[in-house]
């Protein structure tokens, strides 16, 4: 695509990058102490060619962004955690998230160990902007990528995670790894994301991770071949009018979708799309309420003119209709 096309896309975009001095992606947004904090991946070009394993996503640190409100300029708080300060991690710091409990902030992140397998880590800070100090070991029993924390009204915290292909989820069954395991066949139930309640100190799983089932309109699990609806990566959970909304990316078909349920453990029933495909292969998001309005935080690769591992975090208002359905957003106007 030519320069002119990207200029046109920038003009048609429903929102612009929150920061342009660095590339950021996979935004996990929360309101802490009345301010919007965004925990993104920090994209860099490490010179690694594109492959289906995602080796070109070779990120080495995390920055935290914050905003006074939707129309305010985003502040970059600098490096909050670097891979050199995580004893167990070797490479690829992918999509993170954070939670507040008491007066501490807990930062959750995936990274690959020297053996090439992803695990999830946690780091602790006194400020929502970091810096965060990593625990010496990954969370026991954790695997795959894309941790997302949900704080329920009863004071429980849940960690959602998982992603197929480069995220390695297809190599696990019943929380056990086997390199021989593969994605389910097209007519078998799709692999679901995982969820585990966190311990009171926020540092471990309080239970073995459970699989989340996403059902179709007939109450049947979505199938592996249903690639426009099945889970791929980018778990997120928000609660709206007492219902649990589980949202995720369909990866190779490039949609952000959601499903609803009555428990943080699911099952969830597929409801529809949140965001049509963006420029760039990946799509990843979070959903957060601020001053009575709901916002979608997402990313695209318009600023880098289509470089899929150089993405920019954006924010757009999200509407739930009178029945609680999310109104689908199209990232670029016609
Ligand atoms: O940023 C690296 C990976 O790309 C994330 O972990 C996935 O969700 C996808 O956005």
TrEMBL record:
Stored InterPro entries: Glyco_hydro_43 (IPR006710), Glyco_hydro_beta-prop_sf (IPR023296), Glycosyl_Hydrlase_43_Enz (IPR052176)
Entries under SUPFAM superfamilies matching the protein:
Arabinanase/levansucrase/invertase
GO MF term (any one): hydrolase activity, hydrolyzing O-glycosyl compounds
Residue ranges crossing the lipid bilayer per the database entry: none
Q: Which Pfam families match?
A: Glyco_hydro_43
Key words of the record: Carbohydrate metabolism, Glycosidase, Hydrolase, Polysaccharide degradation, Xylan degradation
Which residues are tagged with the site Important for catalytic activity, responsible for pKa modulation of the active site Glu and correct orientation of both the proton donor and substrate? 146
For biological process, the GO terms are: xylan catabolic process
Q: Which family does it belong to?
A: Belongs to the glycosyl hydrolase 43 family.
Q: What is this protein called?
A: Glycosyl hydrolases family 43
**Which species does this protein come from?**
Rheinheimera pacifica
């Amino acid at each position: 695509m030519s320069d002119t096309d990207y200029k046109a896309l920038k003009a048609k975009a429903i929102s612009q990058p929150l920061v342009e001095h660095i590339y950021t992606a996979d935004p996990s947004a929360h309101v802490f102490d009345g301010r919007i904090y965004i925990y993104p991946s920090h994209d860099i070009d490490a010179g690694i060619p594109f492959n289906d394993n995602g080796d070109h996503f070779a990120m080495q640190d995390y920055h935290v962004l914050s905003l006074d409100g939707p129309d305010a300029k985003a502040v970059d708080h600098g490096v909050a955690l670097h891979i050199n300060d995580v004893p167990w991690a070797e490479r690829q710091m992918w999509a993170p998230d954070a939670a507040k409990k008491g007066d501490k902030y807990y930062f959750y992140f995936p990274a690959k160990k020297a053996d090439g397998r992803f695990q999830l880590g946690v780091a602790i800070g006194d400020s929502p902007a970091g810096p965060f100090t990593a625990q010496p070991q990954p969370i026991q029993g954790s695997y795959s990528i894309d941790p997302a924390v949900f704080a329920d009204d009863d004071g429980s915290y849940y960690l959602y995670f998982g992603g197929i292909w480069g995220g390695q989820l297809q190599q696990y069954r019943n929380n056990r790894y086997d390199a021989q395991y593969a994605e389910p066949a097209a007519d078998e139930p799709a692999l679901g994301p995982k969820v585990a309640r966190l311990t009171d100190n926020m540092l471990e799983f309080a239970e073995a991770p459970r699989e989340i089932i996403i059902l179709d309109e007939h109450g049947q699990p979505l199938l592996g071949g249903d690639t426009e609806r099945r889970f791929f990566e980018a778990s997120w959970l928000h609660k709206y009018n007492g219902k649990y909304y589980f949202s995720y990316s369909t990866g190779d078909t490039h949609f952000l979708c959601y499903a609803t349920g009555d428990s943080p453990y699911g099952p969830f029933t597929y409801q529809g799309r949140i965001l049509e495909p963006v420029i760039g292969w990946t799509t990843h998001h979070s959903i957060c309420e601020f001053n009575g309005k709901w916002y979608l935080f997402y990313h695209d690769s318009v600023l880098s003119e289509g470089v899929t591992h150089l993405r920019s975090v954006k924010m757009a208002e999200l509407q739930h209709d009178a029945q609680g359905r999310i109104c689908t957003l199209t990232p670029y106007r016609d």
